Amino acid sequence: MSEPASSRIESPLRIPYPVTKASWIIMIAGSLERLSFFGGSIVFQNYIGNPAPISPQDPPGRLGLAQLRATAIVQTFTFLAYIFPVFAAILSDQYFGKWRLVFSSAVLGVCGWAIVAATSIESLPKTASLAGVAVSMFIVASASGGVASIVPAFAADQVPTESVKVLDKDKKQVLMDHDLGTQHVFHLYYLGINVAAVAGTIGTPFLEKYISYWSVFTFSAASILGASLFFGIFRGTFIHSPPTKNLIPDCYRCIKAALRNRRRFKDEGRPAKHHFLDSAPIAVSLSSSPAEEERTQTADGSLPIPPGEFSQDFVDDLKRALHTCLIFPPLVVFWLAFNQTTHNLITQASTMRRPHWLNNDLMSNFNPITLIFLVPVMDSWVFPWLRQKGRMPSPIKRMTIGFGLVTLAMVWATILQKAIYLSPPHFDHPGNLPNNVSIWWQVGPYIIIALSEIFTLVAAIEYAYNHAPKSMKAVVSSLNALPNALASLVVYALLPASKDPNLVVLYGIISALSGVGTIGFYVFYRERD
């Protein structure tokens, strides 16, 4: 019943593989880690910036370092949380394998959140609490990178690799497709982490306000402990891909040798190769007879590679990995626009007329709440209908649509900010006081940005996983986090300009960058599908 990928066009309909038990377990464990991360980190700003409340009217807090220092610490934590996935993926693909890395990272996360919880004990001096927070935030960020970067690829590894023809309930022949199976897994994982985001970011502020910080951080520790138990108990259920030893050093040496040879060939007047890696020194057979070749085989049955030379398969894999990674730089622009939902749009909400029970920071929950509804609709009805009609957009086209949507959201935010500045009673210097513009107008950008995530971010994960060579899937997939880290630096650099009355210009610039990014992305990447 096996079917090679080349024959897919003969199938009347492609459908995803049913999600395997192993994929479900990994996604549930990954969502528990995200619940721990979002639930615990959402209160860091108050915990670090505000002093302990004296009266019930005071905002919650603990360390009292003030807003600026708290913002700097939290932004550093966020940056580390999006940088560590790259290093975690390298350790996974080269040394430990995916399971060992995610399990050990989850256990490390339990330790990190336990330390944070200990810092909230009221009898502990604030200097000791601050030191504990610094250490624990570093641990939590590294643990988060170790789990969040590996879980999507690890869950996708559990999808059967071959496409198989089967009969559906109407006795029609369909093709159960590996690529659609991984797409389905990524959609479900994205749904799971957004459910976790809603539960964490709405639930733990109530624990913070009405119970204690100890309960918040203990909740986070318990959530990631649950993830650790899932990874540990069900280890034998998973498909394990062995790590590739010396992967990153070999990549570096191969690129270095190829560039050196390319320069030498140019100096010698030889024609340039089509790809610079084609200049890498390729190993040839070391023997002249089958008997000698058999004697020189390594333990895994392959021939030894002389120092300074590389197998053709390795060079081809590296070319494929580098080619795949080229989709990541434009995502910095996307994340720059997206990250407005965690900074400037929250500030914008504080300058709008709203019900007394609605805090301005609760508006950001419209993003994950929208995703909880949209992901099942898109994955179960819209995308299957488009595939049936033969109109399903490719990953690159879906990413382009997502770029266009996030541009629309920023244009909406720009117009809305202009309306706020034109409205009484505070006009273009509202501070944190509301002007006469309803906060419900802000729902639009959050819904549009949520839809753009389904098109751009899920498609980017899918593209990276399906196009990366097997030996480098975790490393390539983890680079999805790098544009967000770089965008966080840009957001941090723009913080001094993110104030009244400059916000219309700021949103306008981000809208223009997103619009140019949309056009540029499609022009330069449309042939990659």
Automatic annotation (TrEMBL):
Q: Which Gene3D superfamilies match?
A: MFS general substrate transporter like domains
Which family does the UniProt entry place this protein in?
A: Belongs to the major facilitator superfamily. Proton-dependent oligopeptide transporter (POT/PTR) (TC 2.A.17) family.
Keyword annotations of the record: Membrane, Transmembrane, Transmembrane helix
Q: What is its main location?
A: membrane
The record, for InterPro entries, names: MFS_trans_sf (IPR036259), POT_fam (IPR000109)
MF GO annotations: transmembrane transporter activity
Pfam families, A to Z? PTR2
Q: How does it sit in the membrane?
A: Multi-pass membrane protein
**Would the keyword Membrane be found if you checked this record's keyword annotation?**
yes
Localization in the cell = Membrane
Specify the protein name. Answer: PTR2-domain-containing protein
A Gene Ontology term for the protein's cellular component: membrane
Q: Where are the transmembrane segments?
A: 68-89, 101-121, 133-155, 188-207, 213-234, 321-338, 366-387, 399-423, 443-465, 477-498, 504-525
